[in-house]
């Protein structure tokens, strides 16, 4: 199944809750885009130069560890995960994500994982796993999302909201909901409420309704 949505709409928290309830892993595609960004930044690559970015990726083997309680990304023995949600990665990641070679690098890693799993990101239900059994798309207003993200970042809510709006815009091409996705506005719901809606949708799907 797939859970896509805009930035900070709750994709990874909801995927983790759903994956735990179903006893399967989840895959965070965004963490791989973030790892690609970290490598490009560390190699001082021009983020718009696909050749330079792919050269950086070629020298950094990564492994996505799809733990249900939270994905981790490893580079040999180095756990990159704590560095992937930094402000500098937030700011650079959308430039990296438009590069077709980087999208192929991420998708190849995701497609190696044997199902069942919950895949979360932007284009899981449209491009990467178009035949997924059940698809969901999470939204919420920029203000609501910025307030939530402000719990996890040092910036204030206004700065975070501006950065989220900018990233939504840069990510627009790959972020269209699948035609067969159930769209959930998470604004009025707490985390358990969203997880409950997704699980109810999965049940309906399994019952063939
Ligand atoms: N429905 C919700 N109600 C309140 N807080 C939420 C809800 N969904 C997610 N959050 C919180 O919002 C923040 C962003 O959620 P996250 O799962 O990281 O989103 P995404 O993976 O889409 O970036 C986290 O701090 C998370 O705990
Ligand atoms: N399937 C995906 C997942 C992420 N991304 C890119 O990766 C970035 C980070 O995604 P994320 O899901 O980790 O982060 P949030 O947007 O939820 O904060 C997005 O802003 C997109 O640029 C993408 O293009 N396609």
TrEMBL record:
Molecular function terms from GO: kinase activity
Catalytic activity: dCMP + ATP = dCDP + ADP; CMP + ATP = CDP + ADP
Cytidylate kinase domain boundaries: 2-203
A Pfam family this chain is assigned to: Cytidylate_kin
Keyword Cytoplasm: no
Keyword vocabulary terms for this entry: ATP-binding, Kinase, Nucleotide-binding, Transferase
Root EC class: transferase
Family per record: Belongs to the cytidylate kinase family. Type 1 subfamily.
The protein's name: (d)CMP kinase
């Amino acid at each position: 199944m797939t859970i896509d949505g805009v930035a900070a709409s709750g994709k990874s928290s909801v995927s983790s809750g759903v994956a735990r309830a179903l006893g399967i892993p989840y895959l965070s595609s965004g963490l791989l885009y973030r790892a690609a960004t970290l490598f490009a930044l560390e190699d001082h690559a021009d983020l718009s130069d696909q050749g330079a970015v792919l050269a950086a990726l070629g020298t950094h083997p990564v492994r996505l560890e799809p733990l249900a309680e939270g994905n981790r990304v490893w580079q040999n023995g180095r756990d990159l995960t704590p560095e992937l949600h930094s402000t500098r990665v937030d700011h650079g990641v959308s430039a990296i994500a438009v590069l077709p070679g980087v999208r192929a690098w991420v998708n190849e890693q995701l497609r190696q994982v044997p199902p069942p799993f919950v895949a979360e990101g932007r284009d899981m239900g449209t491009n990467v796993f178009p035949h997924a059994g059940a698809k969901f798309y999470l939204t919420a207003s920029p203000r609501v999302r910025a307030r939530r993200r402000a719990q996890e970042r040092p910036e204030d809510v206004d700065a975070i909201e501006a950065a989220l709006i900018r990233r939504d815009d840069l990510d627009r091409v790959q972020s269209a909901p699948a035609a067969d996705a159930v769209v959930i506005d998470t604004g009025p719901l707490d985390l358990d409420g969203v997880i409950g809606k997704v699980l109810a949708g999965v049940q309906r799907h399994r019952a063939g309704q």
